Each structure stands twice: as C-alpha cells, then as structure tokens.
C-alpha cells in the first residue's frame, strides 16, 4: 500500500518505520527536518519537508495515489485539517487522525473520520491496571 503520514514525532516515526518494514511504500511529511532523524538510517520511505495541510506539499508526497493517510502531529487542529483535506479533496480511501482532546473525538467521528485518542486509551489502560 502507498501511505502518507503527516508528523514525524515519536508516534509518526514509529508507525512509518513499522509500515515500511512491512513492505508498504511510506512517505512522511514534517515541517522540521530534524524530525526525520527519528526514522533511522535504514528507513526506505520518502521524507518531504513541508506543512501537511499544504495541498502542494501533499501532492509532492503522493497523496493523489495514496491508499492510506495518517495525521499524527502534536496539534489537534492541524491533524483534523490534514485529515479533512486527505478525505475530502484527495479522496484517500483510509484516513486516520490522532486527537488528544476526547471532547473533540466524537465530533470528528461524526464527520466520518477514524480517530485515535491517546488521552482516552491511556486513561483506560491506567484505570484497568489500577483495578487489578
């Protein structure tokens, strides 16, 4: 599969490396050149320096033929905007976005976006561990 990931923080880099090792064609977009260091020297994907809500940058990353897209930056607003662009403008079949604010997650799901909320999953894991 051809995948575009916006955000090369810890989560974005780990996802990109794992997906690349699994044989997928992965392109990572980030505004910070040093963020790409997290990918390691054996990363076989492509790295694009730029803003993940800029349509020209996304085109350069190959979004027009992407099978999947994930917005994994540290900002909810940027993530939702990038996800909406991928879904509505470029018609990417599978779009996932990370949302930190659990209050926003329901709204974004109602918009038809698949979301991951580390705040909720972390709280649930802590609750389960403390109950044991």
List the helices and strands and how they pair.
Layout: E1 2-6, H1 10-21, E2 25-30, E3 46-49, H2 55-60, E4 68-71, H3 76-89, E5 94-98, H4 102-110, E6 114-116, H5 118-131
Parallel strand pairs: 1-2, 1-4, 2-3, 4-5, 5-6
Spell out the key features of this protein.
6-stranded parallel beta sheet; alpha/beta; 132 residues; single chain; Rossmann fold; 5 helices; globular; 6 strands; 20% strand
Q: What is shown here, in short?
A:
The chain is an alpha/beta fold. The chain has helices at residues 10-21, 55-60, 76-89, 102-110, 118-131; strands at residues 2-6, 25-30, 46-49, 68-71, 94-98, 114-116.
Model description:
The chain contains five helices and six strands, in the order βαββαβαβαβα. With 132 residues, it is an alpha/beta fold. It has one domain (2-131): Rossmann fold (3-Layer(aba) Sandwich), CATH 3.40.50.720. A six-stranded parallel sheet has the order 3-2-1-4-5-6, with helices on both faces. β4, α3 (76-89) and β5 (94-98) form a beta-alpha-beta unit.
Query: What shape does the CA trace take?
Result: globular
Question: How many distinct folded domains?
Answer: 1
Strand-pairing-aware structural class: alpha/beta
| CATH top level class name | Alpha Beta
Give Rg in angstroms.
15 Å
- Rounded mean pLDDT is 94
Strand order of the largest sheet: 3-2-1-4-5-6
Briefly note the CATH topology name: Rossmann fold
What's the helix-strand series?
Answer: EHEEHEHEHEH
Count helical runs.
5
Distance N to C terminus: 40 Å
Please give the CATH architecture.
3-Layer(aba) Sandwich
The CATH homologous superfamily is termed NAD(P)-binding Rossmann-like Domain
Number of β-strand runs = 6
């Amino acid at each position: 599969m051809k995948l575009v990931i916006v955000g090369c923080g810890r989560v974005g880099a780990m996802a990109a490396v794992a997906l690349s090792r699994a044989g997928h064609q992965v392109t990572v977009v980030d505004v910070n050149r040093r963020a790409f260091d997290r990918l390691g020297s054996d990363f076989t994907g492509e790295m694009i320096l730029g803003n993940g809500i800029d349509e020209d940058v996304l085109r350069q990353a190959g979004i027009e033929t992407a099978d999947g897209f994930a917005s994994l930056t540290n900002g909810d607003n940027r993530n939702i905007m990038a996800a909406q662009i991928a879904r509505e403008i470029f018609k990417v079949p599978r779009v996932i976005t990370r949302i930190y604010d659990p209050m926003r997650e329901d709204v974004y799901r109602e918009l038809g976006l698949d979301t991951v909320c580390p705040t909720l999953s972390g709280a649930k894991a802590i609750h389960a561990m403390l109950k044991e």
